[in-house]
Amino acid sequence: MSAVAASAAALDHPFDDFFDNSVGEAPAECSRRRLRSVPAAAGPVPEPAAGHPLSLGRDARARLGGVVRTLLNLDGLDGTPDAVRLAVLVLASRTPSETGVVEIRTSELGRWLGLSASYTASNVVPVLRRSGVVSVETAEGAYGQDDGLKCKVLPLWAAQDVVGHPLNLAKKDYATLWRLLQAMMGPGWTHRDGSVTPAGLIGTRTSRGAATDRLALLLLVLEARENGWVRQCGGTVDTKRGRAAATVARLLGGKASTGERVLERLEDRGLVQRVRVATASGLAHRTRLIVPAVAAAHGKCGAADARREDRATAPDPDFSDPDVAAGDSEPSEPDAEPQVNGASVAGEADVPDPALTAALHTIHPPVVTPVSSLALSCGCSGEGRGAEGHRPECACAREDQVADGGTDVAESAPPVAERGPLRGEKPKKSSVDEQGGQRAAGAVASGQPKAVGWEKAPQQRRVGLPPDLGLRVALGPVAGLWERLSGWQQDQVEAAVKAEVKRLAGMLERPDMAPQLLADRLKDRLEETGGEALVDRPFPWLIRRGLVQRQACSDRRCDDGIRLDTGGECENCNNVLHLRRARRAKIAAEVDQELPGLGGRDRRQVLEERLREHTQREAEQADARHDQAVAEVEMRRAAAARRRATEEAAALERRAAACVECGLPGAAGLCPECTYRRRTDALVQEAVDLAVAVRADLDDPAQIAALSERCEADTRALLDDVCRRQAATDQGLLAFTAREVAERIRDERRASAHSRLLRSEEVEAEAEAVYDTVLRRRPRGHQAAEEAAEEARRRTAHYLLERNLGLLRAQRARMQAGRAPKRVG
Predict the structure, then answer these.
(1) Which of 3, 23, 240, 206 is nearest to 120 (CA)?
(2) Is 288 in a helix, a strand, or coil?
(3) Do 67 and 56 touch, CB atoms closer than 8 A?
(4) From CA 136, how far away is CA 148, in angstroms rounded?
(5) Could you tell me which of 30, 19, 24, 453 has the C-alpha nearest to residue 264?
(6) How many Å from the N-terminal Cα to the C-terminal Cα in the chain?
(7) Are residues 490 and 460 in contact, defined by beta-carbon separation less than 8 angstroms?
(8) Alpha carbon distance 410, 397 (integer Å)
(9) More reliable by pLDDT, 712 or 97
(10) How is residue 124 annotated by DSSP?
């Protein structure tokens, strides 16, 4: 705590100038995407602070951005929560360049993440340990919890002194990263002398989502320019959420909805701003995403550079501005009764970004606030359009289209314009207005903000079958039902069809026939229903009836009595039917024999009663067999568990056994030093056998014994001499070195014996025989004959060596058994 507090106290709080020159409060109401309508002239431009943590140069910002992105893109952090990813960055910033080990308490790490100590200990530290990115050693507290942490960011430490690696950081890089994170999310400290180091820019943001907000703000700061502007992502984005939300989502690696929620929370705290760039025509242009703290650190005003316009009043009061018409307006005293109730709606208007939408005209919400009368006649938007009241000829033709470009909504507009008031003048509430008013009133009553205007549009329905050929074949019989599904329902049905096609393909010999087989099933189900016209709810019918396989027997390839793999009748179903008919006939014969005088109705009742009893007995027997099978399975599992327990106990006992030679406890029967010594003795014996096998007369036991004794003494002396020169006094190292030297001696003796046998008469005779044989087959193949003779020479030498070794072992076995030597040859 003292080291952290000292380093924190050495830094001035970097955001005092920024808050002193704040651009003011946000307006009472804003658009759905929370575009702030703050005056452009928001106070004097702050002076750049020398050594400000956020006043990073282009090179420093690019280097830190590369470090942060590299850490966040590590394989071990895939799928981990944002709190774990942010914890890696915090630990990396606090890493000493000399040791690479960070010592921190769990509660202190939680303060940096905006989380409680218990949550950090139970949800962040275990994931960090399992990720393999950070090595964590814990020290237990008073109640057994992980109180102290000793962490090491392994990729950061492994990249040290690796030239060109993005994580090869110098000491100044660690200091810069530390000052940046402290200025961004430092939790604040109270020192012993009474001085206070205030929290960072987002240091007071705690509880749920705090780690995500802190990580998002850090990434935005690293992406921001000197004027605070953040370069937004390109490509197609969700027009209902905006490009700024998509940018935040892509930085975090999440969905656009998550990015929008994070951006709204940051906007509520005044940490980022979304503003519209004003144009010469007065229309709103694309949205700018600004981090004011970065602009303030560089002595610039990003909001003024973006030329934000005031959305609360229109630039020109004599004409209707699309932005003002769609946004808020100054209330006035209406001449007549207002068209909506006076309850204020705590929501946000749905104003799409002109850079994202295709339509040029502003989308008017169905529920509007009272608008003050303009300088023209009555203030209607259709004023001055001629006697008929239609839209002017110069209006864009796309004004007649709905958002998805589907149906033409202008077909019903001319009759309303001819018989009633123009747009904006409704004599009474329509059903849509009533529903909107009810939703707005409900939002006010519940205290939750709700957007004024159009509700969130459902997912767009796709026209036509999916482009995949297999899906088109499978869904061909129900194309009409597919067109009646919504976008979400089409996705669900498509996923179900893919799963069923994959399952059917695993049953068939020709997997490519699975889509056609599913199409035949849907066709049969549709014929049973009576056609598409009788299917009132397509989605439940497809999911619960059309795509479901109905097994008439226990065979998984059976579908309504038809074999899926052959297309013929299911033989198992025929067998089941035959057995049931035979059983019924047998019971009927028993009834006729026992009760011959029964009439037709009484006989039928008795027969049905006995069939019912027989079926019940079969069910009881099946349950008994099932219980017996379950009991057998449990017995087998218990036996397997006992066997595993016995094996584990034997393994533990074997590992705990003492060394049989030196008596070292816990050596698993043989300690490493004795193991090396045994292996060395075996290697020495092999080396002695190789030397004796090619030099001694294998028929003379006395010569074998004498030569073996002399050769073993020489080998032992050579081994001791080499080990004395190479090994130290440590006995374990000496035993290991002796084994290595013995292996080299054995290999050299084998090579020497092989070379000695290559020059023997038997080998030469075999080589000459092979050479002559090849020349007789190919008179001019001298080179081939030489190669065959050389191969025969090596093969014969190897055979002779193995034969001599076998004879030598046999003679030694006889000598040890005390039997008389037997001549070999």
Answers:
(1) 206
(2) strand
(3) no
(4) 10
(5) 30
(6) 89
(7) no
(8) 10
(9) 712
(10) I
